[in-house]
Each structure stands twice: as C-alpha cells, then as structure tokens.
Specification:
Radius of gyration: 17 Å
Helix content: 10-25%
Strand content: 35-45%
Oligomer: single chain
Largest sheet: 8 strands, antiparallel
Length: 245
Amino acid sequence: IRSIVAYKAAFTDIDVGNLVKKMLFGTAAMSSTLCYGTEWVCLNADDISGNENTAVTSWGGFSSLYDAPILKKTGINGLPAIQFSANSGLKRDDTTPSQVTACAYAMYSDSTGYWNQIVGQGHDQYWVLRRYGDQNKMTMHTQNSNEPLAAFDYGKPYVFCGVNRGSSNTVWVFNSDGSVSGSLTSSCSQCTIPAAGTSKEIMVGWSSLKKNGEGFKGLIRSIVVYKSAFSDADVVSIARRMLGK
C-alpha cells in the first residue's frame, strides 16, 4: 500500500478525480487537465491544435454550425480560447436533463446583439446560460424565466456559472482572480426544466433558433456542464479549477 486517504464528507466526482490524480501523479497533475470524464459536456480550448485563426469544425464531440469559430492562441488572459462571431456556433445531439450545472470561462467582446447564448438547449424551452436581452447581465434561463440576473462588463473575461435545482435558478459571475463578482438565486414558476430525457441538441454560441444578432460574440476558453445540481461550494471549486486557481 502506497497511500490511503479517507474523509468524513461526500466528495463530488470532480473532487474525487482531483484526489485520484494527486495520489497517482502528484499535486502538479491536478491543474493539468479540465476534463475527468464525469462531465456531461467538457470543452477545453487547450485541446484544440492548430495555428492562429484555425477554423474549429469540431470540439469535444460538438460540430460547427453555420460559420466555424476560430482558434485564438492567446485569446483570454494569454491562454487559448475559441472566438465566436455573431454567426458561428457548435452543436451536439443529446437529451434534456432534469437539473443542470453549467459553467463557462468566457468573454463578451461588446454590447452588440441580444441574448447571445453561451450554452444550452432550446429557446425559452429548456435551459440556457446566456446574456439577458441586450443588457450586460448574465442569466441562468429555464423555460422563459429570465432570472436571476448578475451584472458583468464587456471586454472582460469571467467564469459564468448557472445551476438549476428544479424549483430555483442560481447564477454566478467569477472574476479572473477567482473572486465572486455577483451571485443571485431566484425561485420561480418556470424554474423547472420540463420533459427530462427529451431529444434536443446542445448548442454552443447559438440557441436552437438562428436569428440575426442572437449569436454569441466573444471568446470561450472552456465550458463544463453536469446533469445535476451542484452545491454553492462545488460551483466555486469548478470556477477556480477553470481559472487554474
């Protein structure tokens, strides 16, 4: 026996993955990867090979839709990121969850357009992590709830996180240093994701309705999504891992 660890707590799959990597490879391995295989969706720009402005036609099981986004080698804080225009997106066929946790390390380039979805399923139908209208506010959107809302600045990278717990939605905005810029929770009549298990594509950079001006415009470094509702502490842990903290 080389090592044994035990905790008086129930760890998330993320933390167990981190712990196993630490035991096998040492502390340095904990920050060497974003995806452990327990995520429903895990997209990491570090996994994209190519030169500056290489078209990203596939990414983590997603395929390009409309115009392909492009690779920027030093897109966010000097690290690789994928640049989306107002007419580029990615999709993957899948089914809807009953609850969801979604986080994206991303930056909105400017205030043009509206809604500008980062990731989600359906349009005012299931769940979406997106901007609210034409405002600098992020929402964890289920059905047509449009709440809660947390403010952010254009041209500045954040980790945006949203959790749907069935009867409530929570949205976070994390600064690049890992501090919380905003966090709000709302209970609402439309906070439930309807018809779990329904066949519906997951979209990155677009909703299921393609309308001019509604595409995401900016940079995405990484996205992780889970088919479960994480605790506040686990969301903070995810955000910090995405930031390399």
